[in-house]
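Today's session is about reading a structure prediction critically. Students often jump straight to the picture, but the first step is always the sequence itself: look for stretches that repeat, for charged clusters, for runs of hydrophobic residues. Only then move on to the predicted structure, which in these notes is written as discrete structure tokens rather than atom positions. Here is the chain we will use throughout the hour.
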Amino acid sequence: MVQFRGSVVTSDAGLLAYRELDDALGLTPAVGDLLADARTGKNGRHALVGMFRQSVFGRLAGYEDVNDALRLRHDPAMRWIIGGKASKGLGASPSQMGRFETSWLARPENLATLADLPGLWIDRVAKRRPRGRVVLDMDSSVSPTHGDQEGSVWNGHFGCTCYHPLFVFNQHGDLERCALRPGNVHSADGWETVLKPVVTRYREAGANVAFRGDAAFAQPSMYEYLESEGIEYTIRLPANQILQAEIGQLLRRPVGRPAHYVQRFYRSFRYQAVSWARPRRVVAKVEWHPGELFPRVGFIVTNLRCKSSNVVAFYNKRGMAEQYIKEWKGALKGTRLSCRSFNANAVRLQLHALAYNLGNFLRTLAIPETIAEWSLTTLREKLIKIGAKVVSHSRYVAFQLAEVAIPRRLFAAIVERIAALRSPPLATT
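Below is the predicted structure for this chain, in token form.
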């Protein structure tokens, strides 16, 4: 016998763990006070924070379009996540969510608030983590478009019509700040508006900050800013004939029979480009790979004082930022920027960023070691997508979860770790 009883069954019961984390850290409750409500009437059916939760948690579960609200507004798990009147009624409709995301949040003051929210959330999470140096990784990416979106332009490097957003991550994988940009801008265009607010926030907190970036950010203005702020940095430097001449001896094939392993050589020297006001330290790495005729050469400009091999090792970890962007694209469908106006798509970018951070917070703070290596995509498919039957009693509502990918003990361990976050924040060093 087959019965359709969608009102008492959910396929996203794992979202309740994320809502518990949200409540333990106090992330979304403050949003209602920060966002400006564009509604002038007094009979609004849905609170601003409730619609905000519906937007963020919906994206976390893989529902990236407002059209999905047609089903989600009936989902019992989503209704309890939204809270308020929705817990016993319905969530916001697609038309209401459309106005919320493309009109209300697209107002300049709300868009500015959304851009600052990741930093505010990360500051709350930082109180539950050991203190230490903050490492910032900046990178850009492509967000292909398939319509007439405002600001969507052909990019010859990526070979498509697209947007070209810019991101800053920290060493924990948290997305500190991001910005939507037209598709034809340079990779480092507008870096000041993205990086400087993050640095200012950490400087006011007295944190020690370091920075890593690829060759797109090899600009004198970037070096001068980082040095003026006392920030240690490693930035890849494009090769030229002068740099090649400095390591001419390392570019000659090593004497003897070819090795069956990768041979690495380093050299550190002072270098001053024409556009630079003073000389800076440059570290060169030369790799000879078996079976390859020419070496692989890379240059890094830095103000670090450690060994050359340590400078390269520190810079190489910058590649994790690319992995975080891939997760943002894959698990959160962050490239779904299909609105007509540029500001509306900027709102969608920020909502995807907040959903990504919420997922990463749970992964780094509450996931047991046995599944610590799970990606955000795996967590969505195995943790969030837990089927559950909803049983309502006079005084409480019970979600009876299915034990498939996530056993009872594992889910209980996650909830226990979240509960521990409610205790006074740690101040370890």
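Discussion point for the tutorial: DSSP finds 15 helices and 14 strands in the chain.
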